[in-house]
Amino acid sequence: MPELPEVEIIRRGLAPHLEGRTISRVEVAHPRLVRFHPGGAQGFAAELVGRTITAVRRRGKYLWWSFTDDDALLVHLGMSGQFRVDDPGAELLAHTRVLIDFDDVGDQVRFVDQRMFGGLQLSEQGAELPQQIAHIARDPFDEDFDAEAVARRITAKRTTIKRALLDQRVVSGIGNIYADESLWRARINHAHPTDSIARKRVTELLGHARTVMSEALAEGGTSFDSLYVNVNGSSGYFGRSLSVYGRQDQPCDRCGSTIVREPFMNRSSFRCPDCQPNPRGAPRAR
After folding, report:
1. Which of 75, 101, 133 is the last residue of a domain?
2. What CA dihedral angle connects 207, 212, 215 and 220, to 10 degrees?
3. Which of 3, 36, 92, 187 could form a disulfide with 96 if both were Cys (CB 3.0 to 4.6 A apart)?
4. Is residue 253 part of a domain?
5. pLDDT tens digit string along 151-184?
6. Active-site positions?
7. What pTM value is reported for the model?
């Protein structure tokens, strides 16, 4: 699933193609993508026509288009959702689900989603923040993000540190890839109990998360396959700079020990067993 850097790259790619434009036509090729709209695909399309976009915004892993009437179009990319900006006459990519035209003579915006876990949803009065995502916490790039307050909240929880990092109600935007990278930089094991980590270390960890995601942004995000690309079809190259994620059995960049892969919430965690030793009482890595 795209994480904060990938979603921010898409936001930056969309903004110059959308801001100030008025929607003239919407075609929904598969109703699942607008499954939350009470009027179905036709109602969704009809309600978008005539709306003028003022801004493309993001919180964590969510995007939304703000309209002049203070409503918004909320977007979640799911596992494989992507926007493409193309000439209206260009051949459609496989799995193109929604096409959006504008009242000027410009590019068409297309939503492509192979697995269709993503979706588009109208949000009344959601221009500043859609109510559907009001529970989502601020992310480390938000100007009002308070790392010390988030660290206090994390250390007050009875869970493990990676679970806390992935809890979008605590801090948003961080997913499996950047959690592992941040924990490696902070030398913290993913299974470390949050109530036994010094608050200062958690604050530092959040700083590492912002830094590693900044570096990912500079390289266009992380692409492991064609399911994440920018709006022009380009891939991100931060995968070449990953220190632990996906590097099972390879040497740690810092100490040379062999990176291990461990099961975590139906996914995997990657760490260096020497730089990130098990917390007391936890089983040894195999």
Report:
1. 133
2. -130
3. 92
4. yes
5. 999 999 999 999 999 999 999 999 999 999 999 9
6. 2-3, 61, 267
7. 0.91
